[in-house]
Amino acid sequence: xxxxxxxxxxxxxxxxxxxxxxxxxxxxxxxxxxxxxxxxxxxxxxxxxxxxxxxxxxxxxxxxxxxxxxxxxxxxxxxxxxxxxxxxxxxxxxxxxxxxxxxxxxxxxxxxxxxxxxxxxxxxxxxxxxxxxxxxxxxxxxxxxxxxxxxxxxxxxxxxxxxxxxxxxxxxxxxxxxxxxxxxxxxxxxxxxxxxxxxxxx
Length: 202
Prior knowledge:
It is a single chain. The chain is about 10% helix and about 40% strand. By secondary structure, it is mostly beta strands. The chain folds into two domains: about 5-75, no CATH class; about 80-200, no CATH class. Strands 8, 9, 11, 12, 13, 14 and 15 form a seven-stranded antiparallel beta sheet that branches. A three-stranded antiparallel beta sheet has the order 1-4-5, with helices on one face. A hairpin with a 5-residue loop joins strand 4 (about 30-35) and strand 5 (about 40-45). The radius of gyration is 27 Å and the shape is globular.
């Protein structure tokens, strides 16, 4: 069984009346594994230290709760804009967005068939984003030109890796102009997945 992840011990067993006034509390230790999916697996393990003071249990519970809240809740770093490739070809993609009033285009992300690339790795702050992509193949399966995902919104691109501020005057700065498609991710959406398929390219 895969035991990767973060481990904690927490499996409380209380004594009955025979423990007397001290109400000694024994902890039989188990392993708890926390995932980003909020799933928890329990595996019972060996024997334990002994706590004679119930305050020790309270302190332990507080620490455990804090760690659960910190590691168990979805992190902002998990939010993202993903581009996924469901075609049979390697895709090269560029991304356009607005950042503090400035238009920015950047690329290229090479996305293998069946794989995804994370182009934004923080919570999304805009409703509209833009993309341009092309299949890296001499011909598509039906003999037509390689698939291209393009649109009417002009952004600067380059043949090599690039990040360009501004969406105009590309050629004087030795860039090319390409038309990007717009994608509406919705209001207050923190993550989004854009999927390239054979039928949505042209």
